[in-house]
Amino acid sequence: MLTFTPPTALAEMPSGLWSGSTTTVADTDSIEARKAKRKADEAAAAEALTQKKEAARLKKEQEDAAKPEKASVMNYSGESTSANEEFNTKLLFIAAAVTLVSPILGIQSARNAISAIKEDDMDLNQRDNTRNF
Known about the structure:
Elements (H helix, E strand, L loop, with lengths): L6 H5 L13 H4 L2 H36 L14 H37 L16
């Protein structure tokens, strides 16, 4: 159930909740004056925002200028990537050389070991059962 509060009850409210005045904005200011005031407030707010953005931009530029310039990419030891790439290239060539040379040396040493074991009159094909003929 809704109840209606008479206007006299509003006047009896504490001063913080009700001002006791029944004047409106329309009574004190004209429409043009309110529009002008609102536009002035908006312009002041826009100017303040522009100044704030400019101050933030200048602060960021100063921070960027104060930082030391880094190499393009840094690894854990602080060397630049280009120095690390040179080392990796050298390491790759060494690994490739070892990969190519080690089987050749292994086969050659196995041949020398077999030659050292066999006697001159020994026939290595004597019991060769792998031939199919």
